[in-house]
Write a structure and sequence with these properties.
111 residues, alpha+beta, 4-stranded mixed beta sheet, 59% helix
């Protein structure tokens, strides 16, 4: 029950974060399609290649929003942030479109 609720909340969070970051000059979707950023196993975005100023701003903005959301979810569900981050990372990687990058055991891989 707890895990299902957490998965639903994280799914909604991922969709919200994708919409929120579209206001930036470089959208999250564009950055992913260009291979600039990818989803990490810890629930945050990472730079696939050294980021330029625009990509760095996007990474910082999205990761800051994710961190706040993960902390809120952890607090509401009386669990630790690391558990939420880990589950969010799993879900984000599962939902990553083919051709975009995800963090693998040996580094970045195209899904």
């Amino acid at each position: 029950m707890f895990r299902q609720r957490l998965v639903l909340i994280l799914g909604a969070l991922v969709l919200w974060l994708m919409a929120e970051s579209s206001v930036l000059a470089l959208s999250l979707e564009e950055a992913k399609m260009k291979g600039l950023v990818g989803e990490k196993t810890n629930g945050y975005l990472g730079a696939v290649i050294p980021p330029d100023t625009e990509a760095r701003a996007l990474l910082e903005d999205v990761n800051q929003k994710r961190r706040r959301a993960y902390e809120d979810i952890a607090k509401r569900n009386r669990t630790n942030v690391q558990s939420v981050e880990s589950l969010a990372g799993e879900k984000a990687i599962q939902n990553t479109k083919p051709g975009n990058f995800v963090e693998g055991a040996g580094g970045w891989v195209k899904k």
